[in-house]
Amino acid sequence: MTRTRIPLGRIAAWAVVVVAVAATIFPFYWMVRTALTPAADVYSDSTSLLPEHPTMINFLRVLGLTSQQEARVAGGSGAKVDFLRYLLNSFVYCGLITVLQTLFCAMAGYAFARLRFPGRDLVFGVLVAALMVPPIFTLLPNFVLVKNLGWLNTFAGMVAPSVLMTPFAVFFLRQFFLSIPQEIEEAATLDGVGGWGMFWRVVLPMSRGPLLTIGLTTGVWAWKDFLWPLLTGRAEETRVLTVALGIFQQQSPNAQPDWTGLMAGSTLTVLPVLVLLVFLGRRLVESLNFTGIK
Amino acid sequence: MGASKAPARPRRRDDRTVAWLFLAPALVGFGLFYLYPTGLGIYYSLTDYGMLSAPNLVGAENYRDLVGDDKFWNALEVTGYYVVLNIVSQTVLALALATLMHRLTQSVVVRAMLLVPWLVPNVTVGLLWMWMLDANLGFVNHVLGALGMRPTGFLTSPSWAMPTVAGINTWAYAGYTALLLYAGMLQIPRYLYESAALDGAGEWRMFTRITLPLLRPILALVLVVSLIGSFQIFDTIAVTTKGGPVGATRVIYFYIYEQAFTNFRMGYASAIAVVLAVVLGALTAVQMRLLRASRSDLA
């Protein structure tokens, strides 16, 4: 029998998994390690796994918690950086899009799945056809529109194109509403519940799972979004983290980039994601299947 | 039980007032930010719009210019090169990881860790690897140096830049893709593997005879979705190489961006976007067909 053989194959397979996980996590470790290194040490101390003189100064200076003078001494380029504000802006941007888009798309999905009205299938068909239009195509005219409305560098202009709907979310939620049994809604109808009450008090509470899935997908997408907020929300007041990092990098001298500051800023874009993973990791990982593709 | 329902049937329900109220926000959003700009984008592509002046119709001039524009063809070529490098490496790696997870461990922790790069903005991913690959101080070059190799400017050498960007994005998306494939593999009945093991089949045989054939619809779907995403690479390049060195990474998306927002040639940029839209539209149509096919397969 081959049972007693040392399972070489399994050991090799585990080794591959361990290497893959290590290769995935190590760059993040190196990012944090660099962020905790004093800028003056970047040249002398660039290989040890732990910083020789760990410091929080890079976080403090990118968060705008030190004076300009202190920031420059610690390796900053002298340009003003206020990642605390950008972090809040990112939360506002992400929060507005996630909550409102999910709500409006659930309303639309519900109407397409359950309500009867003339033109329903036609309207839905047109909406789904829009899935074929790539974002860059509508991005150019949308930028002109937002600019002409005078909405550049306002949250209104930044969230406008995505806050009301995306065809994918409407499609996804309609499919879900179609799949849940109608008996509960029929019983509620007999109790005199209808319209908004039916949607808000009966249908939504039954749909926590898919709403969370679509909300998470939308939230992650908004968190990562770069080009649109770069075009429409460059100003300090509306600058989100991704845009701030891009601008911070440009301001940093090419020959001698402010790596410790950049890595501190980068760490700030990763931390909220880790918090999300800790609290919703299982949910997030398990909701990812082929219907969750965006 | 049918008695209480039956009388209601003949009068067909019509909820048009409620329905339009429920649809109002989504339809306004759709009309203003999808339908209208789609029409407008096509119109711009037929004009000399430059953002500072009003658009004048110029017919097919932008498209004629495109045909003779070397940078446009170069952008297409560079994009194609990137897509092939990225899709092949990403899919092979993801398939391997998914298979290993499927056959070895159901651990949520492993899966969650593989997902981290996908959850992080591409801007962060780009910066992270710029630092890791820095020619003088980057960790990777320290390792190469220790192995006796010369330090390489991965993102500054014209021949290395594109493969490096493709590798960076493979790193960022392989875990996510693996999880999608893994979810597909979970749908394959366990007993198939058990009976194959009883018949003495090895893991490689099970992979080629069970996993691969039964995963095919989902694999095809994931492939098309990755392909569509891959064509739209922008953030990583905007951060790391900015289209350089000497156009080696000036992909189509970046070229559109340059034309529209650096050269203010909105009309010309729109024409390029139309071409890209046609390609991606076709791919999405394929995706929708596959989506339907994979659904009925698993039902």
From TrEMBL, chain A:
<keyword id="KW-0472">Membrane</keyword>
<keyword id="KW-1133">Transmembrane helix</keyword>
<comment type="similarity">
    <text>Belongs to the binding-protein-dependent transport system permease family.</text>
</comment>
<dbReference type="GO" id="GO:0005886">
    <property type="term" value="C:plasma membrane"/>
</dbReference>
<protein>
    <submittedName>
        <fullName>Carbohydrate ABC transporter membrane protein 2 (CUT1 family)</fullName>
    </submittedName>
</protein>
<dbReference type="InterPro" id="IPR000515">
    <property type="entry name" value="MetI-like"/>
</dbReference>
<dbReference type="GO" id="GO:0055085">
    <property type="term" value="P:transmembrane transport"/>
</dbReference>
<keyword id="KW-0812">Transmembrane</keyword>
<keyword id="KW-0813">Transport</keyword>
<dbReference type="InterPro" id="IPR035906">
    <property type="entry name" value="MetI-like_sf"/>
</dbReference>
<dbReference type="Pfam" id="PF00528">
    <property type="entry name" value="BPD_transp_1"/>
</dbReference>
<feature type="transmembrane region" description="Helical">
    <location>
        <begin position="151"/>
        <end position="173"/>
    </location>
</feature>
<keyword id="KW-1003">Cell membrane</keyword>
<feature type="transmembrane region" description="Helical">
    <location>
        <begin position="122"/>
        <end position="145"/>
    </location>
</feature>
<feature type="transmembrane region" description="Helical">
    <location>
        <begin position="90"/>
        <end position="110"/>
    </location>
</feature>
<feature type="transmembrane region" description="Helical">
    <location>
        <begin position="259"/>
        <end position="280"/>
    </location>
</feature>
<feature type="transmembrane region" description="Helical">
    <location>
        <begin position="12"/>
        <end position="32"/>
    </location>
</feature>
<feature type="domain" description="ABC transmembrane type-1">
    <location>
        <begin position="87"/>
        <end position="280"/>
    </location>
</feature>
From TrEMBL, chain B:
<keyword id="KW-1003">Cell membrane</keyword>
<feature type="transmembrane region" description="Helical">
    <location>
        <begin position="171"/>
        <end position="193"/>
    </location>
</feature>
<feature type="domain" description="ABC transmembrane type-1">
    <location>
        <begin position="72"/>
        <end position="287"/>
    </location>
</feature>
<dbReference type="InterPro" id="IPR051393">
    <property type="entry name" value="ABC_transporter_permease"/>
</dbReference>
<dbReference type="Pfam" id="PF00528">
    <property type="entry name" value="BPD_transp_1"/>
</dbReference>
<dbReference type="InterPro" id="IPR035906">
    <property type="entry name" value="MetI-like_sf"/>
</dbReference>
<protein>
    <submittedName>
        <fullName>Carbohydrate ABC transporter membrane protein 1 (CUT1 family)</fullName>
    </submittedName>
</protein>
<keyword id="KW-0472">Membrane</keyword>
<comment type="similarity">
    <text>Belongs to the binding-protein-dependent transport system permease family.</text>
</comment>
<feature type="transmembrane region" description="Helical">
    <location>
        <begin position="266"/>
        <end position="286"/>
    </location>
</feature>
<keyword id="KW-0813">Transport</keyword>
<dbReference type="InterPro" id="IPR000515">
    <property type="entry name" value="MetI-like"/>
</dbReference>
<feature type="transmembrane region" description="Helical">
    <location>
        <begin position="18"/>
        <end position="36"/>
    </location>
</feature>
<dbReference type="GO" id="GO:0005886">
    <property type="term" value="C:plasma membrane"/>
</dbReference>
<feature type="transmembrane region" description="Helical">
    <location>
        <begin position="112"/>
        <end position="132"/>
    </location>
</feature>
<keyword id="KW-1133">Transmembrane helix</keyword>
<feature type="transmembrane region" description="Helical">
    <location>
        <begin position="80"/>
        <end position="100"/>
    </location>
</feature>
<feature type="transmembrane region" description="Helical">
    <location>
        <begin position="214"/>
        <end position="234"/>
    </location>
</feature>
<keyword id="KW-0812">Transmembrane</keyword>
<dbReference type="GO" id="GO:0055085">
    <property type="term" value="P:transmembrane transport"/>
</dbReference>
